[in-house]
Predict the structure.
Amino acid sequence: MAKSFDVIILGGGPAGYVCAIRAAQLGLDTAVIEKEKLGGVCVNVGCIPSKALLHSAYVANLVLHDAKRLGVTVGDVSLDFGAAIKHSRQVSEQNSKGVGFLLKKNKVTVITGTGTLQPGQKIKVGSDTYTATKAIVLATGTRVKGIPQIGLDINKTTVISTDEALFLDAAPKSVAIVGAGAVGCEFADVFNAFGADVTLIEALPRILPVEDAEASATVAKSFKKRKIKILAGATVKSAKVGTDNVTLEVESGGETSTVKVEKVLMAAGRAMNTEGSGFKEAGVQLDDRGFVKTDDKLQTTAQGVYCIGDVAGPPMLAHKGSREGTFVAELVAGQQPHPIRYDNIPSVTYCHPEVASIGLTEEQCKEQKLDYVVGKYPLSANGRARASLETDGFVKIIRDVKYGEILGAHIVASHASEIIHELAVARESEYTVEEVELAVHAHPTLSEAVAEAALDSLGRVIHA
Amino acid sequence: MITKVVMEALSPTMEEGRVITWHKKEGDQVAVGDIIAEVETDKAVMELQARGDGILRKIVAGEGTTVEVGKLVAVIAGADDDIGDVDATAPADSPTEASQPVAAEPPPATAPAPAGGRIKASPLARRMAREQHVDLESVQGSGPGGRIVKRDLAGVAGVAAAAPAGIVSAGGFEDVPLGQMRKTIAKRLAQSIGPVPHFFLTTEVDMEQAAAARVELNALGDQRISFNDIAIKAVAMALMQHRACNAWWQDDHIRYFNEVHMGMAVAVEDGLITPVIRNANLKTLRDIASESRALAERARERRLRPEEYTGATFSISNLGMFGIDEFTAIINPPEAGIIAVGTLMEKPVAVDGAVVVRRRMRLTMSCDHRVIDGATGAQFLQTVTTMLENPMAMVW
């Protein structure tokens, strides 16, 4: 096998493999080094399998709660978490194989093993040393870490991370989820649908703390309806970890409560995969939060070494990493890629209802003292949402007063993840709320709520 | 649908254009944006784009034909459209402008009348420009395909749409109304010596230090630096100290610029053109050298874009390479001055009471007396001399 390539990418996750495909498309001789499965956390123990489980959860809720009203009466319903897990594994396998197929189709060389960066644009895998003539791209990603400082070391039995949760044979009878960001809320949704008694614990004052406060409140209300307990603004005072249960003392709102559960899922904290990879020795410096230090061209402090994806800094999202991969590939090929607008990367939580957002929250607009107007449209007024009994949620568009610029958009809806992109395109192209509304929206669709929210921000809402 | 293809004003001063090459022939399928022909304007060879989809049904103006701006050159239509009625002499519908967002407000008062076709700008940028009275033609786009986006308008002050095309970033100048005395001076001097009342200042500069610096700089890398590049840099730096000479005569006011865009006269076959080195005062000698080479080369190929030869705030003309010792250059209105650079010659001169041979260069500045008075011009030329005689003064 050749030992010299134009570009060598360390890590075959969504940042690394996309970078490799784009580089190969641009005629660069490219290799990817991956120590585990292609597709990284996203495909194997992240985005993809969790979406399969969330769909199982959706069907469970549909059958248990809505089917009868929709005219479909089913007999005895039994839930099989193991089967749901099996389905999710199949999807992950398919996707990982798909990544391998795409790399092969684009003539990217895949090197299996653990790569260690060497000075002078070299990477060592086992006893072999590979040289990159144009660039090395670090895409090593992050992994679950948990929060050991509160006495909750991940023991993989009673205190678990998503790495274990995605392989359980059965849903726990009771579970406390520490961290109510996207991951915590998604697993709360899944375990609740499969009959678990779920307590969601968040240190910040509300669940989904980085989302718009109204989005948090809507999801919290929906969760409470489904008997998910929420302890926000909460501190875990002590943890007693037994062999088949965990007892937590949690203080929230001045009250201390005891939460005794079969399992604790740590859904907060990620560790950078930077140790033992030769980064420091090769001159790649880290910033004070542990991310690899990069400039605006994603170049690290070592000559000819770039960094993309989670390990290059937040937001830690697969689609952000993929775009950075494309950007660096084009840069290395001598093109001038469109700069990445980090303020225009959609953020999505796939619980039910889903939450999708882009740009600033209303709280951030207030903090920045921006002159803004909010346009909002509730799904309870949308025909399509009523038809499918999915009226929880809203579309909220925040526009600036003077020019109509879309400052932020927040959607809570059954398919929020799908309808946010209209607003992503609009913001990327600098359309104002007027262009969004001017495009005719098909009836009846959830997307009509986007047009109505745009109209509402102009004081001209029709169906409300 | 029938689209009349007309001769478009491809440069700000273009009145007619000569079709050089047709890239499409009758019967070819064309789409909006396709380059259908090359047209020679008064300044350069430009590309004519299709403004409609369809089949190029008829070429009215063959290769070599000169056509007035606005007159028909070809017809694009569907295969079944009857084009018998398309009148070759009547001006066609105006070329498609970029569509404006249909807003609740009345249409924009300052909708740009594009000289070179449509202006690409995001709806947000259009709206910001409209409300801030910024002429989008004066803004350089940095988005995809040169599209003007919000960040391009950041910091652009409200500016009336009076600036000629494609030129100075808005806000880079100040308009000063004419006082009575200035008006009278302008009128009387113009009566006396034609539309632009020139006067001339000549000085001789000792180039020993500049020549030594040039040798050292040229030893640093591949980019060779000429005496003309050094003159461009020195004049640009000096203009920053003498804003009174970095100005345009605007008939009822004088526009003083805060940026220096240096016009550089380049001889081309049967004529001359002055490509512009923008913000020359801010550029390194190396950048000036490479940019002036590239511009001169494209000028000789007649491939300059309008924005590359308009908008100079001051100019330089150099005939040194022809051994011309000294000459006067004619001002390129509305600029108020031009410096003519002569050849570098070894001459006997008196230094500290002894005759020695030194390398000397003569500069002659032509001034528009309506803008620049004798002493103003002389002081500026003194600064230029200081900077050339002691190049470190440029960074002082």
